[in-house]
Design brief:
Layout: H1 2-26, E1 28-30, E2 36-38, E3 46-57, E4 60-66, E5 76-78, H2 85-97, E6 101-104, E7 110-118, E8 123-137, E9 150-157, H3 168-174
């Protein structure tokens, strides 16, 4: 009789494990702090495409911290209507760092999908992120920088980047380099 109970329990766990995996793939979204939120079935996620740039000079990488985040991130952001990925990257990079992009590889070296929940505006996003290598930047000009969006622009040594200070997705992408 005890054997039947174990088989039944195992079957139950396997059955519900599959359901949990399905939920994760469709309805679990992370906020900026990394906490999970379940998207209600009656809500529609907004598609969003973003482009980010990786600039490494003398073993230092250029990172930014936005006002809405506690993490250091790669410069970049949302593709606006009428823009392509490269145009977006050039615009966002200048706005967030104060540097113009002079030369870049125009094909992303990596892309991924992410499910993001923006608590402040109560919107769920199905995002596609593209990551580009930036080969050369121009001189710094503070007039390009969007001070209302960016707290910090910082060059950090590539080796030994502080994982706890980095945006988790961006940190994982940097490990690919």
């Amino acid at each position: 009789m005890g054997g039947r109970r174990n088989r039944s329990k195992t079957s139950f766990i396997e059955k519900y494990g599959v359901i949990c995996m399905k939920l994760e793939n469709q309805n679990l979204y992370r906020n900026l702090q990394g906490r999970l939120h379940i998207k209600p079935y009656d809500r529609v996620a907004v598609p969003r495409t973003s482009a980010y740039g990786i600039t490494i000079i003398d073993n230092k990488i250029l990172l930014v911290q936005a006002v809405w985040s506690t993490f250091l991130e790669l410069p970049g952001g949302k593709v606006e209507k009428g823009e392509d990925l490269v145009t977006t990257l050039r615009r966002e990079f200048a706005e967030e760092t104060g540097y113009n992009v002079l030369d870049l590889c125009e094909h992303p070296f990596y892309s991924l999908e992410s499910k993001f929940y923006s608590e402040d505006i109560d919107v769920y996003y199905d995002t596609r992120l593209y990551f580009f290598r930036i080969n050369r930047i121009g001189d710094y000009d503070s007039r390009r920088l969007q001070m209302e969006e960016i707290i910090k622009v910082e060059w950090l040594t590539l080796t030994g980047l502080p994982k706890e200070l980095m945006h988790p997705i961006h940190y994982e992408v940097l490990k690919i380099l």
